Amino acid sequence: MIDQSPDITAPETSTPFDATPVQQTPINQTPVEPTPVVPSSGPRVLTAKIFGIGGAGCNAADHLARSNFNGTFYAINTDAQALDKTGLQNKTILGTRRTRGIGTGGDPELGRIVAQEDVANLKSLTTHADLVFILCGLGGGTGTGAAPILAQAAKENGALVLAIVTTPFDFEGNRRQAQAQTGLQALTAAADAVICLPNQKLFKILDENTSFVDLFKTSNEMLADAVRGVWRLLTDSALKPVDFADLCSVTRARHAESAFAIVQGVGDTRVDQVVEKLLAHPLLDAGEVLAQSDAVLVSLVGGADLSMGEVNRLMTQINRHCEKANLVFGASINDCYQNKLSLTLIASRSRKADLKPEPALSSDRATSPAQLGLDRSQFLDTTTTQPDRRVSRVLPPAPELTEDARNQIIGKRGRKKMLSRQQKELPLEIVSKGRFDKSEPTVRGGEDLDMPTYIRRGVALN
Amino acid sequence: MFEPSNVIVGLEIGTSKICAVVGEINSAGALNIIGIGQARSNGVRKGEICDPVKAEEDIRNAIVEAEQMANVEIRSVFLGVTGNHIRGFNNHGVHPVVSADREITEEDVQDVMKNAKAINLPADHSVIHAVRQLFQIDGQTGITNPVGMFGARVEVDVHVVHGHVNRMQNPIRAVKSLQLDVDEIVFTGLASSLALLTNEQKELGALVIDIGAGTTEYVVYCDGVIKHTGVLAVGGDHVSNDLAYGLKLPLGRAEQLKIEHGSAVLGDADRGQKISISNELGLPAITINREHLRRIMSLRLEEIFELIEQELAELGLLNFIRAGVFLSGGGARIPHIQTLAEAVFDLPVYRGSSNSISGLKSALDQPEFATAIGLVRFGSFQQKQKRKGKSSGFLDGAKNVFTGFFNK
């Protein structure tokens, strides 16, 4: 895999997937270059902004900030008190008019409305970023309701949006779980990729005697790990770098759900340890997630003693578990990892509804953006303008609006949403089972076989 | 000559009809079918009694008819049971041979069978059949009768068919209320396979599918032993119901149309064809689209076969079925159903007939009677066994011995 250097640009730019997912986003209809974010000279440095939204999100962002992570942090909350406590540089309070700074009381709808009202503000926060991380704990009011709005705003500003979220513990009750699921759906629709850490799975990792404080600390640490892992993928000097375009190809416009795992191995058997841990990883559901994913990003960090055979062995084993997936592979050497091996894996799966017969889903190496003239050096070096250059995702910030105009737009948007919430649900059409109405249903594989087959299979009789 | 034990009666309480078949073992020891009685069934849904009063009346009618035809008095029956609750699976039993000379005795065989039957059933289920497959002595496989052989460890595979105790009690109760005894209860799928298959076919591997009105039973034989049994609570009634729903007809009319115009495959000639039928009140004719009728039917039947095919494919049994698929039950009468089954299973498909038994030719050829005839056959095996005494528990030639036991 390594032998295929990403610096070789294959001349097959006319392959069918020249139409990259980029063009599916409506905001990129007009090519804009050079982008305003990019300084016109010198190599470009990727900028990341990390948003903690809601109570849990702020805590996680705070945790990450304390670990000397290099990025700009923002805390967004509706609860002024909680916001005060965080040690982040930039704090934004949402919906003071509506909630008077006392939070949403766990109502995602309220969270969504206040975010909607402050959308211009959110949008201005997310400008000038290549990568926006949104950290939040789903299930409550602010995070669940506002995170999708924030993701949408960031995406409209041209950033790649990765949301890294937790879902509640089972003990928090069904309502929060349900809210979290709704929020997760909204977020997957808005963000480029969502990495979801179900908190409940932490119970599998930790033992019973772990203190309650440590439980949340671990949850925060997992979120932070995910951010750091993605960041390391992009920025570490590497033998076989994973570039921003690779990451985009895995996540962008897929509205994917992703799972994330970091595993380490030490000693002679480090490869076997890594594979074993990976397949037993609770967040990957014992390898189940790998089998279902259609894009997998793998980044290795090892010492200088990392041998070709080891990499080969590791990758063949991973490949075997995700044969259908588009595998993106990166490796770097770090002296700290002498005799050690660390592997970061992001597996993402498109939602069924979004699955299009895209050739990009095949595991063919040619799907790598590197071969489509989008390799790292070119991506970063914006001074050379290519004649067939594709549309950049990075758009200029929204035009300055006067206070009146802004209010007018917000007002309009708010009203429209209010109206659309009135939409009534139509009753489910119930197919009578006739003769078998009162008998015990014959259920096989989740299907009620008493219903006529042609109805279940959706065969139309004209 | 007419000592009661010579008359064997099989009673099948089906969803569309109740059928009693009377067989007699003649002086040569061969089975002869001498009478048959049937009645339309009203109190049964999906193979299980839902209205005991109606069901009893129908059973009485069937029995009376059979008694008249065979000119015998029926005292006890072999009763067929089916329903969604019945399951089959394979189990394994081990027994160490303790005798000093290591010769395997009949007792050892009984013990190993007992071990194989000790299974974790759901609390409310009980075993209907535990059918021996093959024995294994100290790792040597493929032994059909280990008695008299030497070894330290006997193992046996059994196929266990079990069902819900209370739900199996319902038909027994209905029969007993008519002052009849139940000799044994038999899974109807197994009975059908006994009626249809010859030993050669069992040896080669065969699949028997009995498509009844309420349920579809299937049994797989490989290498002469039963490997798999199952029930799918979908049958001809479902086809009628689908038609009634899809063509917007009353159920009775849908059933009639199914019989008169039905087909398991949708041919090119059916496209756009219409059928005109007169209304039951003699009002102007209604027009039915024959293409729709056959499409609804073929989808339902295809699904039944596909579900069975998937199950067998998962168990890896399809490659062992070399003799083919044998269809019985009312569903086997549907035109072109063999073509449909051939397409799904990719195996030769036959309409089964009970030719290996002598008697009323007209009855033996009908696929609907296969189950009841199989019940009689099962009874005849049991009687032969009884007559031989407990010396050997084996049928001559056949490896499948039924140690069905039945409480109450």
Describe the fold and architecture:
Chain A is of the alpha/beta class and 462 residues long. Chain A is built from 16 helices and 12 strands. Chain A has a domain at 260-383: 2-Layer Sandwich (60s Ribosomal Protein L30, Chain: A), CATH 3.30.1330. Chain A is 36% helix and 17% strand. In chain A, helix 1 (54-66) packs across helix 6 (142-156) and helix 4 (108-117) runs parallel beside helix 6 (142-156). The relative contact order of chain A is 0.13. By secondary structure, chain B is of the alpha/beta class. Among the domains of chain B are: 87-160, Dna Ligase, domain 1 (2-Layer Sandwich), CATH 3.30.1490.110; 237-298, Actin, Chain A, domain 4. Chain B contains 11 helices and 19 strands. Chain B has helices at residues 52-70, 106-117, 165-176, 188-196, 199-204, 236-247, 251-261, 290-315, 337-345, 361-364, 370-388; strands at 7-13, 17-25, 31-40, 44-45, 48-49, 76-81, 87-96, 125-137, 140-143, 153-164, 181-187, 206-211, 216-222, 225-232, 274-277, 286-289, 324-328, 349-351, 358-359. In chain B, helix 6 (236-247) packs across helix 7 (251-261) and helix 6 (236-247) runs antiparallel to helix 8. Chain B starts with 6 loop residues before the first strand and ends in a 20-residue tail after the last helix. The model of chain B is unreliable at 390-408 (pLDDT under 50). Classes of the chains: A alpha/beta (462), B alpha/beta (408). Chains A and B meet through helix 16 of A and helix 6 and helix 8 of B.
Could you give a quick summary of the protein structure above?
The complex is a heterodimer of chains A (462) and B (408). With 462 residues, chain A is an alpha/beta fold. Chain A is 36% helix and 17% strand.
Properties at a glance:
heterodimer, A: 462 residues, alpha/beta, 60s Ribosomal Protein L30, Chain: A, ten-stranded mixed sheet, two-stranded antiparallel ribbon, 16 helices, 12 strands, 36% helix, globular, disordered N terminus, B: 408 residues, Dna Ligase, domain 1, Actin, Chain A, domain 4, six-stranded mixed sheet, five-stranded mixed sheet, 11 helices, 19 strands, 34% helix
